[in-house]
Amino acid sequence: MFAQTIQQFCEITGARYFGNLPSDTTFDRAVIDSRQAGPRSLFFALPGSQTHGIRFADAARTQGAIVVAGKEAVGEYDGSMIVAANPLRALQQLAQFNRRQSDALTIGITGSVGKTTTRRLLTFVLSTVYRGVQSPANYNNELGVPLSILQIEDDTEFAVIEMGARNPGDITELCRIAMPEFAVVTHIAPSHLSSFDSVSTIARTKQELIESMNTDGTALLNADDRHVLAMRDSAICRVITFGQSSDADQRYKIVDVSNTKLVIQMGGHEFCAQICGQHQSSSLAASIAVAQELGLSARDIQAGLDDFEPASGRTVLQKIDGIDVIDDTYNANPASVRAAILLLDQWTTQGRKTFVLGDMLDLGEQTAELHFAIGVVLSQTQINHAVAYGKHASDVADGFLSAGGALSRISVFDSEAVLLSILDCLIDHGDVLLVKGSRGMAMERIVEGLRRLPPNSLRGAA
Fold first, then answer.
1. Angle ∠(61,66,67) on CA atoms, nearest 5
2. Rounded to whole angstroms, how far apart are CA atoms 244 and 264?
């Protein structure tokens, strides 16, 4: 971030400083985790679901940080500090100020699925020519976006910012902080239905990114998604559509797809990415479309794709004791689960295919219905065995069996330990296993559990 003094911070946010804090003290970092604190950093002591950040103020100060907290925390900490009426709002105001100091091109990305992969692909591609930053991990909410924006420094040329939402109005607020000049919308699908009452509400919320664009901005919309395509009617900026549709401005076609390679043709050139699944083609096309709009050559784009690595837990292929394990554990909603099923169904292998699915969370009143529908989809594939885990595993099984799936092809578990102990009877050397589930299910523990099994213990059923 651009260096600021305590006095400037107080002028920006309306905060006040107390104790032995010279007003000209300079900082150039902001953190919300005391373990990341250090000299020249602001530590924002925010309230959390389990504890209040003020409990870690001493640890942050010991490491050289300046503490920022709300009035309610003053009585719990007697050291020098900055007091803000709303520390989260102060963090956002600081990020907005930082954004205004920079000429970096800011690109906002939203959608129900595909945000992270698109963000990473685009960052790898643009980094072949420009110096830039991207949202760390999935920093895409009211905390993550300001922290992402605060990475922007004097020599930053681009920032790729992921934007999520749990409620209508969220993305509008994030855009006030990030002020994107390019916008990308990936796909719209059922997610966070405990907050959104319908897919239409989700679409209207994601559309806030397009509605926040100025007339000199550019929006890139997925022409293959009717909800996304409809957003162009609300745009006052330039709109470019991308997709396999014949009506897309930037049309692409899939040339080749294998287990770990995807090749598409777009703009008269072929582009290859080492990535699992043809469902990733939309993210690949979006990143190429942005890069082409910014004038990157096909060679530069391909160079970035050559360096691409998927984010942890997002269709990452691992070898564990002779098994191909596809770790897709980061999160799950109906659209991403269907994509994962298609990926495994089309996987080329001489062995068996096993799909392990943890509950899809945050689907509100449609939870049972959507899990049932996934069971129906699974029954119609060539996947050898489906393993459903969690409170809604029985709904998956009901859908599977109702659609004619054989009872021998599905198992249901409500215990992680039992699931792990049974997996060694289901899979064998040469097999492929895909693990998927919502973040709250922590399905990465299944992958970790497989790693802890003794070598050559995976034997398959007799």
1. 80
2. 10
Find the largest Cα–Cα distance for the chain: 74
pLDDT of amino acid 452 = 86
| Residue 49: per-residue pLDDT | 81
The size of the chain, in residues, is 462
Residue 66 identity (one-letter amino acid): I
Report CA-CA distances (Å) from 261 to 109, 120, 281, 302, 353. 24, 17, 11, 13, 19
pLDDT of 462 reads: 37
Q: What is the pLDDT of residues 37-52, one digit of tens each?
A: 999 999 999 998 888 9
The domains located in the chain, with CATH, are 4-85 (3.40.1390.10), 102-307 (3.40.1190.10), 316-452 (3.90.190.20)
> Tokens for 445?
């523990």
**Beta-strand pair 4-5/26-27:** antiparallel
Tracing tokens 């010279």 back to the chain, one arrives at 22
Contact 101, 2 (CB under 8 A): yes
Q: What confidence tens digit (pLDDT) does each residue in 159-215 have? A: 999 999 999 999 999 999 999 999 999 999 988 887 888 999 999 999 999 999 999
Query: In terms of C-beta density within 10 A (0-12 exposed, 13-18 middle, 19 or more buried), how is residue 227 classed?
Result: buried
Q: Which residue has the tokens 């692909």?
A: 121
CA dihedral defined by 139, 285, 328, 198, rounded to 10 degrees?
Answer: 70
What's the confidence (pLDDT) of residue 460? 59
- Which stretches in the chain have pLDDT values below 70? 456-462
Distance CA 385, CA 398 (A): 15
Looking at this protein, which amino acid is placed at residue 9?
F
